[in-house]
Amino acid sequence: MCLAVPAEVVEIHRFDVATIEVGGARKKVSLALVDDVRTGDFVLVHAGFAIDKIDEEEAARTMRLLEELGVLDEIS
Amino acid sequence: MRYLDEFKAPAAARELLREIAAARGGGTFMEVCGTHTMAISKAGLRPLLEPAVRLVSGPGCPVCVTSDADIDRAIAVAKEPGVVLATFGDMMKVPGSEGSLASASAGGARVRVVYSPLEALDMARDDPGTRVVFLGVGFETTAPAVAATVLQARREGLDNFFVLPLHKLVPPALKALVALDDFAVDGFVLPGHVSVIIGSDAYAFLPVEHSIPCVVAGFEVTDILQAILALVRMRGEGPALQVEYSRAVRPEGNRKALAVMEEVFEPCDAEWRGLFVIPGSGLALRPSYDDMDAGLWEVELPERRERGACRCGDVLCGRIRPTDCRLFAAQCTPDNPVGPCMVSSEGTCASYFLYGDFGDDE
Lengths: 76, 362
Hints:
Chain A has about 80 residues and is of the alpha+beta class. Helices cover about 25% and strands about 40% of the residues of chain A. Chain A has helices at about 55-70, 70-75; strands at about 5-10, 15-20, 25-30, 40-45, 50-55.
């Protein structure tokens, strides 16, 4: 339940909202809990919020693991 | 051992297993994160590490530690007229004294599964005639998201959005665990994503005040094995706090998220299912948000019922493994859970069951 999913920020909108891409799907998340996020950054997403920035390599590692654990459908 | 063949042991993991064996130490280590429990069970690590290293699972699943009484309250709130209760899906099947949110929903209560508290906020905005209550469950990973949603509701002036706050905090629970007379754990594998928020410094008291080695770990098999190797070495060299997951966890955590959480919530005593009331281990809405606090509603609650032979409490303290409970895989299965550790997909009992991690215990 505390799992956060890595995602790429593809567009930033007004009011601290961004479109992210995770596993090929796009969705909107809130940026209210993070500072200085730009398009192309990778973030950890949990319950509709970006909870931190991470680097691209870490994003790829975590993504691979989530696929292995088969929990990606459940949380994205 | 059933899944041993499937264990994808790349060279790095094999090398780490060799190093752990060569370190000629060991002990009982507790992983305090449901995702770690899943990863360990899936990889079949427990039998590979025994007998030198014994891994037990701690109270790492916020769904599992939600008390019967809190489930009862959530059900009672959901049954109030004009209310929709919005909840993470994991909570639906957790048994209370008289049924679960799922059975309450089948009985006519309006319960909706959401992925984010922001969806509950959308529901409140779209339907001003309905009181939308978000069931605030989760550790420090989740609480800031709920706090930010409360702030957003306040900014928009919504008067039909509420939270039933049942959040739990990890460090106070660990403090309570290590104080138990029969707590027999020699080191902690600490959670990754909780630590992204609270920072590794939040655990500094464990090695300093309680002489227990700790490692904040990532989620890959090699991450977990590295953490175990570090714990084994620290047992010889002296306890410390190490961050093996420094690529995502900073000592100070996410200050902005912590500030949002602290603006909306304050620590309170909270009951952990199967354990006891742990001081300062829950989050209550601050008094300035009383108008949004569904926990203050007067609702009729059923009499609490004890859970018979279920030993989830002993599982959550690391006293026993799921396989030591006589209900495990007999009366208690993921399809028909008796205790909460079998309900959540990250629950300790569910992980052991799903991956056939029945262990090679004596």
